[in-house]
Structure formats: C-alpha cells, structure tokens
Amino acid sequence: MKRLHMALLAALVSASPVLADEEAELVINGDLHIVTRAPAAPHLEGHLDEVISGWVFRSDETQALQMDDFDNPGMVFVDRAMEVWNTVDGSEGKSCASCHNDPAESMKGIRAVYPKWVESAKEVRGIPAQVNDCRENRMGAKPWKYEGNEMAEMEALITLQSRGMTVDVAIDGPAQSTWERGKEIYYTRYGQLELSCANCHENNFGNMIRADHLSQGQINGFPAYRLKNTKLNTVHDRFKGCVRDTRGVPFKPGGAEFTALELYVASRGNGLMIEGPSVRN
Amino acid sequence: MRNPLTLAAVLAALCGSAALADGTVAPGDVKYEDGAVAVSLTGTPGDPANGPAVIDRKGGNCIACHQISAVNLPFPGEIGPPLDGAGSRWTEAELRGIVANAKMMFPDSMMPSFYKTEGYIRPGVAYTSKPPEGPLDPLLSAQQIEDVVAFLMTLKD
Q1: pTM of this structure
Q2: Positions of A marked catalytic
C-alpha cells in the first residue's frame, strides 16, 4: 500500500509517467504462473545477475492486459492464424494442418528452443524461416514477408503452444559461431548516436530514457502486441526500430545478422518463460 | 586584419586549429586537451537564451538522458547525471569538450558525440534508416554547441 501511495503521489507531483509495481506477479487467466525474474544464465556472468521480463517494466494498465486472454488484444490475431493454419494454400493442396495436425501438440515447446541450428538446412533459423520453408517447399505457396502480419500472427499461434515453458535455447555445438556473431552485434555501437543494445538494455534497464522505462530488451514475450501500432510485432521488427533509434541503418529482417542477434538475445532470456503474445506499449 | 577571413586564419594559426571560411572550427579540427576544448568553435560567444532549444528533442535531445531543473521540459531521462550546477562543476572549456565529444572526457561514455562526423558504424540519415549519400552533418552545429555551453555555464549551485 505504501508503495502505491508513493507512486500515486510522485505521479501527481511531477506528472512523470506512472511506473508499474516492480514486485507484481504475472499470472495469466488466474492459473498460469509466469516466472518474470530468474537467475542469469552462466554465459551472462559479469554482465547480468538476474534476468527480468519486459512485462515487469510496463505500467499497471499494460501489465493487466496480459493477465487475461479476453483482455489481451494479441489473442484475436492468434484466432485468425488458427484459421490460416487450417486453410489450404499453394500448388500442393495443403494447409499447415495437413502435416502438423493440432498445433497444441505438434508445436508445443518449439518457441522455447528457437532460434536453433537446423541440421537439414545447415544453419541457425528462427521460426519464420521454418514457416516459409514449409510454405515454399511443402505447400508450393508464396513465402510471407518476414515481419509482416501473417508471419507475426502465425508465430504467435506457434508461440502460444509454449507459453509458460522455460526459455532454453542452445548456444553451443553448431550454433556457437552464430551465437558469437549475435553477441558481437549486441555490443556494437551503431548509428550516429553510437549506441549498442547493451548501452540501453544491460547498463540502463530500470532507468528512464525520456518517457520510456528501459527494460532488459528480452524477447520471451514476442510476438508482442503493441498499443502504439495496434498489431503484433515480430522480434526483428523491434530490433529494426531500436537500431533506427540509434540513427543507424538496421539489418534486414530475416537476414543472417538479425537471426544471429535473435539467438543471442534469446539466450540472455534462458531461465525466463515464454509469454507471447505479450502486451507492450 | 579587417578581413574576417584573415582574422580567422591568424586565429587558426595561433591556436593550432584549422578554421572554416566563416571562422568556425570544423569537427575534424577540434583540439581536445584532457577532454576540454579551450577555443570557441565559432569565434563568437554563445547565446544562453538558445540553450533550452538545443536541450530539447529537436536539438541535441539532452533531456532524453539528463534532468535539468532550469528548463521546463516533461519526462527528463535518468541515464546521465542531472545537469543542475554543471556551470559550477566544470569550466567553459570542459563543458565545450564534453558536449562536442564526451568520450574524450569519459571513455566509453554512452553520451553521443555531438561535434563529430566520422567513425560511425552503419550510420543513417537521422531516423530514416537510410544510409547517407554524402558526408554527415554533426549532430549539433558549432553555434548550437556554443549556445548550449553558454547556457550550461549559467547553471550554478
């Protein structure tokens, strides 16, 4: 109670944005308990002690939207993707369901381990690359735009099947060199403002940058429904926005650089739980 | 010596900085000494009245990272220290150096270098995500830097 009063008072006095209660717990639909703070993975030693979900840093109102699927605006798009899942497309007369049946079974656990090394493709891939592989090579359908709405919505449907599972992407073995590349990108200061991901999300999470409350830039909540653009946003879309904000030139969504960065950022969230589709401002 | 061009040339020769035709020191020619810049970048005193405009979003957006009580701008950031009293903590030369290129004073600082045009990785044209076709302008002009430095000098404890 004391906290709340203080926050209210601060809001009234300084007209600063109201910050969320950082001790709040994320329970979805009254029964799914989500771990939003976890000890950092060993590879983060010397960088972070604790990893924290972006949900923790959002306002009380935004947090609440993610706590009930009837209030979560992202869920409408999951329903839409379920229709697409069952719809035949392309020259082979197939839908996703033709091969993968019920996503609740076939897609369970996928989001928690992606991006990952795909042996048949001999490269690290995110979920969208796999979706487009199926569309082109199994369905004879046109690939979707990497950060377009169809892809974001299908990724949300796939992600939902892992909600509440612990993020556990592999960073060793054949994925290691991609992971190293992603790490290098994370710590590179891009653009005319010369800012790295780490400048904002490792050294300054919890601080305000103008009116924005900086989080750790975790991706366990993606795809994320943003109140700002009222749609689901993919990980690479967010990366693009963050690099643009350094007065820089972003890498191509779906390209090797952002895929490597996605693997690295995902690994910084090992120990947190999959939350997508999340709600953000 | 009535010719301003000659004056600038002489000044440049004296202080070891090459000056542009209008007497402005080019970004690549600024001389830093322990992070400080002794000579005015324009050769004329800055106007503190323009300081608040430079501090705002359309200028150097200092307010994104710093709180400054003397300007009435909402939602100041908390990345860097509050700038209240900066004029008591630092000399004019030090403030000029910090604003022009803070990394000379604070190695690895997160603060952008406002008077620099080279050495960037994947620079874009402002927030367009497009690569520049020619040379980039510095984030702030020499005049804007002199103005904000003059303004910071008025922030006394």
Answers
A1: 0.92
A2: 242
> Domain limits of chain B?
27-153
Q: What is the ipTM of this complex?
A: 0.91
How many angstroms away from the CA of A7 is the closest CA of chain B?
15
Q: Answer whether B112 sits within 8 Å of A195, measured CB to CB.
A: yes
The backbone torsions φ and ψ at residue A89, rounded to the nearest 5 degrees and listed phi first, read -145, 145
Per DSSP, helices labelled H in chain B are: 4-15, 51-55, 86-89, 92-100, 142-153
**Smallest CA–CA separation between B36 and chain A, in Å?**
20
Please judge whether A194 and B120 are an interchain contact, meaning their C-beta atoms are less than 8 angstroms apart.
yes
SS3 A166: strand
Q: What pLDDT digit, counting tens, does each position of A127-152 carry? A: 999 999 999 999 999 999 998 999 99
State how far the alpha carbon of A184 is from the alpha carbons of A123, A180, A188, B62, B77, in Å: 18, 6, 6, 28, 27
Report chain B residues whose CB lies below 8 A from the CB of A243. 122, 129
Separation between Cα atoms, residue B144 and residue A125, nearest integer Å: 47
CB contact under 8 A, B75 and A204: no
Cα Rg, chain A, nearest whole Å: 19
Helices (H) and strands (E) in chain B, counts: 5, 0
Q: In this complex, do A191 and B65 lie within 8 Å of one another by their Cβ atoms?
A: no
| Cis before A103? omega within 30 | no
Residue that has been written with the tokens 């007209």 in this structure: A15
Q: Which of A229-238, B21-30, B83-92 bottoms out in mean pLDDT, i.e. has the lowest?
A: B21-30
State the smallest CA–CA distance between residue A189 and chain B in angstroms: 7
Homologous superfamily of domain range B27-153: Cytochrome c-like domain (1.10.760.10)
Contact A188, A199 (CB under 8 A): no
